[in-house]
Amino acid sequence: MAKYEADNFIEEFIVEDLENGKHGGRIHTRFPPEPNGYLHIGHAKAIVINFEIGKKFGGSTNLRMDDTNPSTEETHFVNSIANDIKWLGYEWEGDILYASDYFGDLYQFALKLIDKGLAYVDDSTAEEIAEQKGDIDRPGTNSPFRDRTPAENRDLFERMKAGEFADGSKVLRAKIDMAHPNLLLRDPVLYRIKKETHHRTGDEWCIYPLYDFAHGQSDSLEKITHSLCSLEFRHHRDLYNWLIEALEIFPSRQIEFARMNVDYLITSKRRLKKLVEEGVVSGWDDPRMGTLAGMRRKGYPAQAIRNFCIRTGVTKRDNQQEFDFLEHCVREVLNDTADRYMAVLDPVKLVISNYPETGELLPLDNNPGDETSGSREVPFSRELWVEREDYRKEPQNRKYFRMAPEKDVRLKGAYILHIDGHEEDADGNVTQINATYYPDSRSGSDTSGVKAKGTLHWVDAATAIDIEVRDYAKLFTDATPMDHEDKDFMDFINPDSLKVISAKGEPALTNAKPGDTFQFLRKGYYTADEDSTEDKMVFNLTCGLKSSWKG
């Protein structure tokens, strides 16, 4: 057997099982999301853990949809989940699986429990069941229906399946211990009546298993060796194991790891859904959302998400990760992969009075750090667009190396200019910057002898394209908006989380496809959005150039 080294406590369990020859040395994990929304950054952590462990130990990983609630689940969500996992770079074993694939098996498991006297049909209301359970300081009380015979329970359960009873009128409960210290084992509900159309099985079923009954038995049916789930399911493990023993089925092993939360991002599908439904964001894939679809649209590379999930480690205690570290991981990848283009976000006209009326094409490297990225030709002419903030009427100190009257400055990949002055409107706003150029100062062949300490980006006015830039900031003003007992997380919505800017871009940006990410020189990383049209390209701010993460 190959010698494996464990990098975290989950892998220690797995190595132990492998060394003991458990399951014949086979490793099989699974990722079982409920298709009732889009995946978020917390799900990414679970995906990376399950798939990377499967890969490391020569095993495989299933993708199984936990589709046991027809009220909230849609095929649309199934497709988005599958797309996100593939985008992250993972392939699951075989076809997508569904808990609904096993409805017949789960029904037979329920009958087996009934026949063994380990489950009963209860007519109590939800409120009555909650009261019967007691609390941590008080043992529960038995349901008045707990002592029905197996024959009575089988008859009633079969009639539940046949649709004879109304929603909520009866449930199937496990018969365990109403004084158990783990409240989840105080006769938990296993099945409920729900006469709603299921996204896959239609109206075939009107009773549906609850998560605690469906997920463990689905693991066993698939012979999952290690059921890896987040820490909130720790107390569910006792029921998980009780059902395995009671049903005498394949003994999958549940291991819990800590959830990963990230500053300023919501990792609750219910709350993400609220943001969508109340119109706070444009949809599940809004770039301000903590969903994988939103981060993909914003321009975060899949590699960066994987790196972030791996580098934050696997822990036993819930943890809060810095948003700045997430963007640090994004910036690391984009610094190597993103081509450098020019765009002017707050344009003002620059006129070079002594430049010929006929323009020229200047060569620029696409990515100076990547020799394989090639180069492109950028139009240059007498009239250019430059950033308004790069000009000052009166510089405040000697270390100002951008544009000001009587200053020399270089344009990226082009010439050194001498700034002669400017024109302004009645309100004192600069409407045009006037300059002359040194003809022998072209980048790569400069023989002018003129020195310029500042280098600025620019766009040719004659060929520039109009672009829309969506400047995204954090959606919340508080890093942990769900941690305030006295306030709703919606109270922390940032009203300035999106600013739409009309800008100018070099003509080559016309060829950008949705998802293409560029470094706009001196401004940040920007990604072409799917809203782009032939008439107007749209770019989303992915992240800034400088990292604020302290390490």
UniProtKB/TrEMBL annotation:
One of its GO terms (biological process) is glutaminyl-tRNA aminoacylation. Residues 130-150 are annotated as: Disordered. InterPro entries: Gln-tRNA-synth, Gln/Glu-tRNA_Ligase, Glu/Gln-tRNA-synth, Glu/Gln-tRNA-synth_Ib_cat-dom, Glu/Gln-tRNA-synth_Ib_codon-bd, Rbsml_bL25/Gln-tRNA_synth_N, Ribosomal_bL25/Gln-tRNA_synth, Rossmann-like_a/b/a_fold. The keyword Nucleotide-binding applies. Pfam families: tRNA-synt_1c, tRNA-synt_1c_C, tRNA-synt_1c_C2. Residues 27-335 form the Glutamyl/glutaminyl-tRNA synthetase class Ib catalytic domain. This is Glutamine--tRNA ligase. It comes from Neolewinella aurantiaca.
